[in-house]
Every structure is written in structure tokens, then in C-alpha cells.
Write a structure and sequence with these properties.
about 325 residues; alpha/beta; four-stranded mixed β-sheet; 9 helices; globular
């Protein structure tokens, strides 16, 4: 599961300490998956689900429906089918261990049915962990941001987070302040070896985008033709902003550009240099290629992500104010 470092202008755990939270994320996920899988296989009730790797304390909860359901499910998968959730045991930056905190955070999956296979269990766990990721990307110990419900239904965000490796750091439409002016970028994926800038081009299903070197492209939907602003303008703008930040901070990190549409097709008659076109035909293959990375996180990757985080705009509320407002509703 890729790590959601920043979304829009929401407050993020990673803003407080980018060198600590990535390793805590991986260890937390692996620990909780091991416990969930053990309980599903053995039927043993675990009274509390908690992990001592993160920086917030919550009150213990009563036994959940998760515990009650799994106490009756004692079926075990064959060893050949007992596949692990794909995470690394350790996350190291250039060989240096990252310090941990000793406080706790309760994480309790909200399971509503008993899965019959390890794959169903894994999907259930990952879906629950997605909500936990959103929490990390929209709150800290003292502050919270209002999360637009559309992100909880965003299929691309969910697919990327749940499919890509743990060592990938994702910025999802972050708002940066460049020369005191807010600039909204698109999607940035910091892999251990490069920064992938992705501009999304998704409108009507089955739309065909015919690219040119001009300012406008042709879009065909059935028999209807329409002019649309070239998406390369936004993609190239994002590359320039990121490249400038890297240069100013001495970051030597390659930038790759991707134009993406999952529900349409891109037809570019000429030659396009330095931009990877991904549409409905090759999206699965592109995602699969990103999944193959086995490289651990790198020092330059962390520095590159930190450079972006130092420039982002953040809008948040004090937790006490947030709770007071909710009580008043």
C-alpha cells in the first residue's frame, strides 16, 4: 500500500516528521495484518487491537463485531494459499534506523461479515486500512482537516494506494505556495528512484483524445467532436514547478511525466518525447509495472518528498475546536 503523504491542503502526519512515519506505517500494517490473519485462522478473540508505533492515544474499545464473527470462524487456508500482505519488514533510509515513539494508537477493523478465504480477508483488511491512511493524511495529534467525502469514493486514489508498494509516497492534488501564490498540482508519486508526475484526463467514458502540439486537442465522444485544452499544459507546468524546487534545494531526482486516462483513449499522431501515455488499453500493464519495485526507500527520495512538503499549503483546525463544533451540531 502506497503512503498518502499529502492530499489537497489537508494537514498530514508526514508534515511533522517524514523520517519517522513511513517506517511506522509499514510496521503498523504488518503487525495488524498478522494479528487479523491469526485470529481468522485460529478463531481466538483478541481483546484489544493496538500498536505501539505511532503518536496518539485512544481509549480501549469493547469487543467488536470483528471479534465476535471471527471467534466462530475457525477455518484455515492451506499453507500454499496463506499469502502475506505485501509489506517490507523494515524501512531504512540509507541504512540508518529511524527512531520510533513509544505511545499507542488503537486500530480496530470494522468487519461486517466473515470472509471465507484468505484473499477475502486481505481485501477486507486493506479496505479498512484505506480509511486509516486517510486519517493520517488529514490529521495530527492536535489538528484535523475537513475531508471532502469524494476522496473516500475516489476509485483511482484507492486503487493506487492499495496496489502500489509501501515504499511509494503519494501527493494527491497538493496545493503548493510558490512565490506566495497557491498552485494546485496533480498527482505525484515519489518512488525510491524517481518522481512520477501524473496528469489525469478523465471525462466521458470511451472518449477519444486526439493530441496535437497546439494549445487545444480534439475530443471525440461517439459522433460528437469538441475542443479541449491540451492536458500537456498542466503536466508540463507541474514538471517545471517540481523541477525548480528540486534545483533550489539541491535535489538530484529524475522526474517522469505520465498522461493518464482510465476510461478513454489517447491518440497522438506525432512523436511525443519524455511523456508516457497511459489509457484504457495499457492502464493495467502500467500499474503492474509500478508494482514490481522491490527497492527500499532512499535518502534522496525522502529529501525530494520533504522539499515538496516544505512548500505545501495547509488548512486545518485545532482538534478541540473541531470537537466543539461537532457537539454544537
Amino acid at each position: 500500500m502506497a503512503q498518502l503523504v499529502k492530499i489537497q491542503d489537508y494537514i498530514s502526519r508526514y508534515e511533522t516528521d517524514l523520517t519517522r512515519y513511513p517506517t511506522q506505517f509499514i510496521r503498523l500494517k504488518q503487525s495488524q495484518w498478522d494479528r487479523v490473519k491469526y485470529q481468522w485462522q485460529s478463531g481466538e478473540v483478541i481483546e484489544r487491537w493496538e500498536q505501539d508505533l505511532v503518536d496518539e492515544v485512544e481509549e480501549p474499545k469493547k469487543a467488536s463485531i470483528f471479534q465476535k464473527i471471527f471467534s466462530f470462524n475457525k477455518a484455515k487456508e492451506d499453507e500454499g494459499n496463506s499469502e502475506e500482505v505485501d509489506v517490507a519488514d523494515e524501512l531504512l533510509v540509507d541504512g540508518d534506523a529511524i527512531p520510533e515513539e513509544s505511545t499507542t494508537l488503537l486500530f480496530e477493523p470494522n468487519i461486517v461479515y466473515a470472509p471465507n478465504t484468505i484473499e477475502e480477508l486481505k481485501k477486507m483488511f486493506i479496505d479498512q486500512f484505506f480509511h486509516f491512511q486517510m486519517k493520517w493524511a488529514s490529521s495530527t495529534l492536535r489538528e484535523k482537516s475537513y475531508v471532502d467525502p469524494k476522496y473516500m469514493r475516489d476509485t483511482l486514489l484507492r486503487a493506487m494506494l492499495q496496489t502500489l508498494p509501501d515504499t511509494y509516497l503519494m501527493f494527491y492534488f497538493p496545493i503548493l505556495r510558490v512565490k506566495k501564490a497557491p498552485i494546485e498540482l496533480d498527482i505525484m508519486i515519489m518512488t525510491p528512484t524517481e518522481c512520477i508526475c501524473v496528469t489525469l484526463l478523465e471525462q466521458e467514458d470511451q472518449a477519444v483524445y486526439i493530441g496535437t502540439s497546439e494549445r487545444f486537442w480534439d475530443k471525440k465522444v461517439g459522433k460528437v467532436d469538441k475542443k479541449v485544452l491540451s492536458p500537456l499544459i498542466q503536466l508540463n507546468r507541474m514538471e517545471k514547478v517540481v523541477e525548480q524546487l528540486f534545483v533550489e534545494n539541491g535535489i538530484d531526482f529524475p522526474i517522469r511525466k505520465v498522461l493518464l486516462t482510465r476510461n478513454g483513449y489517447i491518440d497522438y499522431p506525432g512523436k511525443m518525447y519524455g511523456i508516457h501515455l497511459v489509457d484504457k488499453r495499457n492502464f493495467p500493464d502500467w500499474m503492474q509495472s509500478l508494482q514490481k519495485s522491490v527497492s527500499p526507500m532512499k535518502h534522496m527520495q525522502i529529501r525530494a518528498a520533504q522539499t515538496i512538503l516544505q512548500t505545501v499549503q495547509t488548512t486545518s483546525f485545532n482538534r478541540d475546536i473541531w470537537n466543539t463544533d461537532k457537539e454544537a451540531e
